[in-house]
Specification:
- The protein is α/β, with parallel strands linked by helices and about 375 residues long.
- It has three domains: about 20-200, Nucleotidyltransferase, domain 5, CATH 3.30.420.10; about 210-300, DNA polymerase, domain 1, CATH 1.10.150; about 315-385, Orthogonal Bundle (DNA polymerase, domain 1).
- About 50% of the residues lie in helices and about 10% in strands.
- It has 18 helices and six strands.
- A six-stranded mixed beta sheet has the order 1-4-3-2-5-6, with helices on both faces.
- α1 (about 25-35) runs parallel beside α2.
- The radius of gyration is 25 Å and the shape is globular.
Length: about 375
């Protein structure tokens, strides 16, 4: 029994995915895929194992076959760009945002005609929207959690790992068919289409490191001003070490430990032992480098701070809180999360711009035609009351 109350069955067997590791084979596969009305898509990356994350697998499924493209092979991936940009072929993802952002970052693709089974589940008010839960409840399929933190940059990949990867797309097309029918019956197809269009416009993934990321370290804003330079010196050293080793920075040393070091600013190896998180291993491997970074912090310049979040006056805050209260009521009546109705960003823009007519609502970004028609009069009434 699926989350939408319907029993579902899907009987196509899984003989194993077709591996695509050469340019001629990929051109052949893409030529075939362009004749299908829909193709399921997923990617696997190595964010837990590399300094700079990259897409390591691209999974594709049709009603007849499963494919896995290996971006780490000597292969020209440009043909996939035609598939992803084609308005004639629907690309079906689950939780598309990260996949789209990564593919745009690594390969410069653009996207058109997406369907996201996670967002469809959210719009339908399904209580569980993770793919593993949906596959279990809709198709009776159990996925192997061992591969959730797998290093997809390893080569060769085991047959079991490849089977796990192909499961992420094998059932998406029948799931999409179920959800398409449910959305139509609920009168939510246009709402879903607006959500899918926003996902297609997701910008390329940005680097999680660098000067801007520094200002978002958890605990940074609890430091005293004189403790920021030591933290920046440590952060810079850790970033360089992570790049040298090609590992994520958190695998060099935790940010919470950097915060403790910046507060205490130890000057000897003996004092390092008093810092929470500084294990004997870290002291032996990095102790001298950490002390050197701290000693150099008097001469470092902090990177520019990001633009501060603008302060809102009382009238804007009152309108925002009134809009939030209205959104909670709508979400509760629909049985969905609040951001399915409208995002916080849209609420802030409404509160700041304070539109008074339906025509002025057209200037609110993120408020598509369906949401404007469905919620516009109610939004204007809430704003008028404030």
């Amino acid at each position: 029994m699926s989350q939408n109350g319907k029993s579902a069955s899907y009987t196509r067997s899984m003989p194993g995915p077709v591996m695509v590791t050469t340019s001629p084979h990929l051109r052949e596969v893409v030529s075939e895929l362009l004749h299908h009305p829909a193709v399921a898509v997923d990617t696997e990356s190595n964010s837990l194992y590399a300094y700079q994350e990259r897409v390591c697998l691209i999974q594709l499924s049709t009603a007849e076959a499963d494919y896995i493209v290996d971006p780490l092979a000597e292969i020209d991936l440009a043909p996939l760009g035609e598939l992803f940009a084609s308005p004639a072929v629907q690309k079906v993802f689950h939780a598309a945002e990260q996949d789209v952002a990564g593919l745009k970052r690594d390969l410069g693709y653009s996207f058109a005609h997406l369907f996201d089974t996670m967002w469809a589940a959210r719009i339908l008010g399904w209580p569980r929207v993770g793919l593993a839960d949906i596959l279990k409840e809709t198709f009776g399929i159990h996925t192997d959690k061992r591969y959730q933190r797998y290093n997809w940059s390893k080569r060769p990949l085991s047959a079991e790992a490849l089977t796990y990867a192909s499961l992420d797309t094998h059932y998406l097309l029948p799931l999409q068919a179920l959800q398409q029918e449910a959305l139509q019956q609920a009168g939510r197809l246009e709402e879903a289409a607006e959500a899918f269009a926003r996902l297609a416009a997701t910008p390329p993934a940005a680097s999680p490191f660098g000067p801007e990321a520094f200002w978002h370290i958890k605990g940074l804003h609890d430091l005293k001003p004189q403790e920021l330079a030591p933290l920046w010196a440590l952060y810079t050293w850790r970033d360089q070490e992570a790049a040298r080793r090609n590992v994520p920075p958190f695998k060099v040393i935790a940010s919470s430990t950097l915060i403790a070091l910046a507060r205490q600013r130890p000057r000897t190896l003996e004092r390092l032992r008093e810092i929470p998180g500084m294990t004997p291993y870290l002291i032996q491997r990095y102790g001298a480098a950490i002390l050197e970074a701290l000693a150099s912090s008097d001469s470092v310049s902090l990177p520019p701070r990001p633009d501060p979040t603008p302060r809102h006056d009382d009238a804007v805050l009152a309108r925002y809180e009134a809009l939030r209260a209205w959104r909670r009521q709508i979400a509760a009546s629909r049985g969905v999360d609040a951001d399915v109705v409208l995002s916080n960003a849209v609420l802030w823009e409404l509160a700041e711009q304070n539109p008074v007519t339906l025509a002025e609502l057209e200037e609110i970004s993120g408020l598509g035609d369906w949401k404007r028609a469905r919620y516009g009069p109610a939004l204007l009434r809430v704003l008028r009351q404030r």
